[in-house]
Amino acid sequence: MKRAKITIAGSGNVGATIAHLTVLKGLGDVVLYDIMTEAAQGKALDLQESGPVEGFDCLVVGTSQPSDTANSDIIIVTAGMARKPGMSRDDLLDTNVNIVKQVVREITPYSPHALLIVVTNPSDVMAQVALQESGYAPEKVIGLGGVLDSTRMRSFIALELGISCEDVGALVLGGHGDGMVPLIRYSQAGGVPVEKLLDPETLESIVERTRHGGAEIVHLLKTGSAYYAPASSVVAMMEAVLKDKKAVMPVSAYVKGEYGIADLFVGVPVILGRFGVEKIVELDLLPQERQDLMNSAEAVRKGFGQA
Ligand SMILES: NC(=O)c1ccc[n+]([C@@H]2O[C@H](COP(=O)([O-])OP(=O)(O)OC[C@H]3O[C@@H](n4cnc5c(N)ncnc54)[C@H](O)[C@@H]3O)[C@@H](O)[C@H]2O)c1
């Protein structure tokens, strides 16, 4: 069977960590694409040299040549600036929109059948920019947001209850920004609704911590933003596609009227398989939840208007 080819544009903290997880899981050959050619080559070679110890045969190359990315099955865009303390994701817009446009223009023509995962922030807006620049079908472009926000919320619930995080499910919809919509009603531990296990004040503090989960890490790191949980989240999305898992995950997807929102990327639950977004799952939302989702979508639309 042909090994998958995965191009990761941006070999910084998130990109390199995705590359590491990709080869450890043997998901495919990796191309680290970056304007910093030698840094990408150095990281690629270092990863390659871990193969004999880890027991993987994936090839890893670093490059700044678009043609080296040809015939990728997955393209992941992490190129761009990360937040520093005090910055919101939207503060990155002006810089990152140019970088994402450039990268997508450079590499997507070489891989017309790839699935594109956009990580660069603000990721919902950048996914829309990437859709426009690539000309890909909308179901082949997704942004990182909900999987990361939900894994943060799952961690906070598990830590609060002192139980295995594996047993905890949580769902965060909306744009990947301060207006994201963590849904307590759709969060559970081993099938038991969290509302039966935690008091309302604790649940509200978990919701707030989830909304500001990225900023909490930025504040601690000082020089950049989170990358371990983001990379794990991207790899989960990538695995769903490569293994045609039909996994139900919240991702930033192009909605065409679902949830009353049209022509925009926003975090919604989708079925993710080898064709990309195979279905958008529409949940019954309470009026306040629906309003929160609309507000979050409007913030994304406004950001795109400024891109
Ligand atoms: N959507 C999410 O949930 C999420 C989570 C974490 C990080 N992010 C975002 O991902 C991006 C990357 O974060 P990071 O921590 O890896 O940053 P980083 O600074 O460590 O890495 C960025 C990399 O992009 C490269 N780059 C810049 N311009 C380029 C270009 N034109 N072509 C190719 N490569 C280019 C840089 O050389 C660098 O290696 C940031 O925008 C960050 O905000 C998003």
Features:
alpha/beta, L-2-Hydroxyisocaproate Dehydrogenase, Chain A, domain 2, about 40% helix, 2 domains, Rossmann fold, binds nicotinamide-adenine-dinucleotide, single chain
Question: Could you explain the architecture of this structure?
Answer:
The protein starts with a strand and ends with a helix. Helix 1 (13-24) crosses helix 9, helix 5 (123-134) packs across helix 10 and helix 6 crosses helix 9. The chain is built from ten helices and twelve strands. The chain is α/β, with parallel strands linked by helices and 307 residues long. The chain is globular and about 50 Å long. It folds into two domains: 5-143, NAD(P)-binding Rossmann-like Domain (Rossmann fold, 3-Layer(aba) Sandwich); 146-306, L-2-Hydroxyisocaproate Dehydrogenase, Chain A, domain 2 (Alpha-Beta Complex). It binds nicotinamide-adenine-dinucleotide. Nicotinamide-adenine-dinucleotide (NAD) binds next to helix 1 and helix 4.
